[in-house]
């Protein structure tokens, strides 16, 4: 069985949400992940914090945060086991991040060494 990473992209996010909103999102995320765990197809995953985020460009210039000139940020990822990219994409369709317009989930197969 192959492994795929599901990358959560948020559009126009400034990283600031209320504690209540974050708690609601986390519950939805954990419920969704729980459905994948129940199928024994969850490998790993986590959210990505905005605090102290850095971006290093091709000139090795380090800037604070991923929010400078881009309109989307990475909010987190999970790794799942699936027979195909299509099956992994079916998992992605249930991601709570897709409740907000403009957000996406990128599905990529993980290379094995």
The proportion of strand residues reads 25-35%
How big is the Rg? 15 Å
Cα separation of the termini:
15 Å
**Which regions are unreliable across 5 or more consecutive residues at pLDDT < 50?**
none
Average pLDDT value?
A: 88
Helix content: 25-40%
Taken from the alpha-carbon principal axes, the silhouette is globular
Discrete helix count: 2
**Structural class by secondary-structure content:** alpha+beta
Largest sheet: 4 strands, antiparallel
Give the strand order, joined by hyphens, for the main sheet.
Answer: 2-5-1-6
Tally of DSSP β-strands: 6
User: SSE order, as H and E?
Assistant: EHEEEEHE
How would you portray this structure in words?
It is a single chain. The chain is an alpha+beta fold. 26% of the residues lie in helices and 35% in strands. The protein has two helices and six strands, in the order βαββββαβ. The strands form two sheets. It has a four-stranded antiparallel sheet with strand order 2-5-1-6, covered by helices on one side. It has a two-stranded antiparallel ribbon with strand order 3-4. The longest helix has 20 residues, at 19-38. The two termini are 15 Å apart. The model has no long low-confidence stretch (mean pLDDT 88).
């Amino acid at each position: 069985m192959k492994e795929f990473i599901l990358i959560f992209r948020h559009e126009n996010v400034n990283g600031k949400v209320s504690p209540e909103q974050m708690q609601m999102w986390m519950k939805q995320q954990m419920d969704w992940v729980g459905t994948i765990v129940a199928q024994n197809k969850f490998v790993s995953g986590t959210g990505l914090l905005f605090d102290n985020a850095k971006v290093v460009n091709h000139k090795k210039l380090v800037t604070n945060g991923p929010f400078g000139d881009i309109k989307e940020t990475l909010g987190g990822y999970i790794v799942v086991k699936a027979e195909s990219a299509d099956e992994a994409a079916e998992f992605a369709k249930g991601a709570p991040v897709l409740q907000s317009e403009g957000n996406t989930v990128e599905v990529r197969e993980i290379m094995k060494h």
